[in-house]
Amino acid sequence: MERYPVNKIIPFSSVDGPGNRTAVFLQGCNFDCRYCHNPETRKLCTDCGDCVPKCPAKALSIEDGKVVFDYRKCVACDTCIKTCTHDASPRIRWMTPEETFEEIKKQVPYIRGVTTSGGECTFYPDFLRELFTLCKNAGLGTLIDSNGSYDFSKDPGLLKVCDGVMLDVKSWTKEDHAKVVDFSNEMVLKNLKFLAERHKLYEVRTVVVPGLFDVEGTISRVSEYIKDFPEVRYKIITYRPMGVREKYAKEMNPPKKDYMNQLKIKAESIGVKTVVLV
Amino acid sequence: MRDISMDRVNSTRDQMLETVKSPTLTHEQKVATMANLADSLLEVLDLPEGLDELLNAPIDKQCICDLSEGHAPLRPRYIIPDYEKFLREGSSFLRLEPAHDLLEAMNNLLIIYKNVPSVTNFPVYVGALDKLLDPYMKDVDDETALKLTKMFLIHMDRTILDSFCHSNIGPEATRAGRIIMKAVAETCDTVPNVTMKYDPDITPDDFAIQGIETTLKSAKPSFANHKMFVNDLGEDYVIASCYNGLKYGGGSYTLVRLILGNIAKRAKNIEDFKKNVLPYVLDIQARYMDARVKFIVEESGFFENNFLAKEGLIHREKFTGMYGLVGLADAVNILMEKEGKKGVRFGHSKEADDLGVEIMDIINDFNNNHEAPYCEATGGHYLLHAQVGIASDIDVTPGTRIPIGEEPDEMIDHLRVLSRFHKYFPAGTGDIFPIDTTVHKNTDYLLDIIKGAFKDGLRYLSFYASDSDVIRITGYLVKKSEIEKLENGENVMQDTTALGMGAKHNGHILERKVR
Ligand code: SF4
Ligand code: SF4
């Protein structure tokens, strides 16, 4: 049975979709968002070993040249991820979909569903398909939190067991998108349309960093598109420097509250039914 | 009546003089304290042998506590009048006609509340306010109904000077229920406490969500597992005082509690506790309660003379007694230490939790086999009650809770422990969670937790916003700003503020784990 790198499982989450959900975070991402607040989830560990001696709880060790993590000993002090210069974390549990599901089942009947996030969880579509099939059989909802780089149209099997996607639209124009994440957004916009039309789009999110990209243009274009899908929520997120890599944090400032409110009003006036500010 | 020593008389007289001179007690609080002190000189109950040593001991040794009910109880501890009948028929004693409209209904209720006795001298139950008021709101527009409801609630808060006072709403959604919650959220007072009876098959989600929004503003309502209470007590149950499940038109004669931690201290080991020490104390507490109940029913004359009984607003046959306990966690931890297992702690190890369940099974079996006098309403037995503690408790964990400061990191692990214990307590138990509302803006999140918890066998849950002024101490509500006043030596209106201050210092209430 294949194993996948699980960075973290949050048993009760109020911020990863409707109601109370268990959130499963997978390790690894292809985007490099300037404002990423958990950059340690971006890359897989290279087993360089730098963090191992720094762990105060002796939760890390090296066996056969590989870093081994004992999650029972970890005291979550974050020393290891602050040490790592590879945007990685040694706190990874390599888990099968079944093992992951066992961890999720502990929260039944207190949760209504599961959300997979990352990193970028669509790196592991086989994992998602198997995990979601188990969840569906247990009556749990299934949501994917994605940066939109995965071609969902080519994976009907995944869409069958997935209730919806929470899609990041980081900016509307290709040029801006490259500035934010070093990656083009053609696939993101293709997914926006594809998922919305199939009623598999739960939510679109945009993180607001004034000056980094054309914020108002992005909010307007997204709003114009999703206004025809009243079930799709638009979550407009305030950039916060916490956890962001220092070299980038220096260059960015959080938006003012008033500005966020104006953006909300703008999206609503274009016709988006539910706009959420966080 | 038995004689008492002159020493005891004199020490009581000293306490009375102190009470008279107290700078912080209000007039009403002084009068109540004086009455309790006078009552403490009486010796009329037929007390079981062995009680004295268990009851009248220093707080680190006391095994049985009667929660200052007095030596010669002159009324049942908790009284639950049939307010529907009262509104329908009026009262000849109070010289009140049946209520015909909302103003009369509210006025009549405010009058009767001042005539419902209890251990606190204030009513511990003020009715299913939504059901009582909904019919009278038919001809009243929303704005007027809200204004009147707010005045009604403020009147209660400023005249019922003790927050062990409870109203109920639900499980059905009503217009009155929604208006009451709106008024509760806008007034943010401590009296009356509110419980929403919740049943996912009856209560619509939006009504429950309004309840959650309201509790995050004003620390009430709490949520009661309606299916579970109906199953244990029948459709005619109410939630009164802290969170006590009792019969409508009845009440509880008495509440006495076991202090399990101190009982465990007397045992050599787990075996000795289960076989000898615990059964010995269980029996004495039960017989002490029997004596109290018999005095109230047979000698006090309450049920013959009080207008509530004479006018059929309460019925002796619907009363029961509450067999209380505190400190299950303390007992388990002490016993584990005696077995040399210091690290095996309640709430954190299956072995410890299993011992908790075994202890509860022993207590439950004992109670189910003890024939309690005048308790035909509840099958001839007392009802178990997980008592929330009192201000003077030191190192005593309420009911079957996990001690503050030792709550499991994950809320799910916390809930799973609680779910093993709520079933034992038809007369009330409950757990409290402060919520960080800057993180959890999603009210469906809490509704999912309530739904899951009630499926999982929890009975009663309370939430409040961690930054709220009104907070739930152990079962009752207090304003943090009022505690501060009292700490500065100013008078405060409600007597429960002093309990809250004690619980803040001795019970570390403000250090509860925020979820
Ligand atoms: S966070 Fe990292 S360094 Fe800290 S205890 Fe856990 S594994 Fe060790
Ligand atoms: S987590 Fe980072 S520092 Fe630690 S071994 Fe892996 S790559 Fe090296």
Can you walk me through this structure?
The complex is a heterodimer of chains A (278) and B (515). Chain A is 30% helix and 22% strand. Chain A is an alpha/beta fold and 278 residues long. A nine-stranded mixed β-sheet of chain A has the order 5-1-2-6-7-8-9-10-11. In chain A, strands 3-4 form a two-stranded antiparallel ribbon. The radius of gyration of chain A is 19 Å and the shape is globular. In chain B, strand 7 (237-240) and strand 8 form a beta hairpin. Chain B is globular. Chain B has 20 helices and 15 strands. Chain B folds into two domains: 50-73 and 250-428, no CATH class; 81-243 and 430-515, no CATH class. At the A-B interface, loops of A face helix 17 and helix 18 of B. Bound molecules: iron/sulfur cluster (SF4) (2 copies). The site of one iron/sulfur cluster has 12 residues of chain A, from helix 1.
What is the gyration radius of chain B calculated from CA atoms? 22 Å
Give the percentage of residues in beta strands of chain B.
5-15%
Total number of strands of chain A: 11
- Elements of chain A, N to C (H/E): EEEEHEHEHEHEHHEHEHHE
Report the average pLDDT across residues of chain A. 93
Bound molecules: iron/sulfur cluster
The percent of residues in helical segments of chain A reads 25-40%
Which features does this protein show?
heterodimer; A: 278 residues; TIM Barrel; two-stranded antiparallel ribbon; 11 strands; 30% helix; 22% strand; B: 515 residues; alpha/beta; 2 domains; 20 helices; 15 strands; binds iron/sulfur cluster
Short summary:
In chain A, 30% of the residues lie in helices and 22% in strands. Chain A is α/β, with parallel strands linked by helices and 278 residues long.
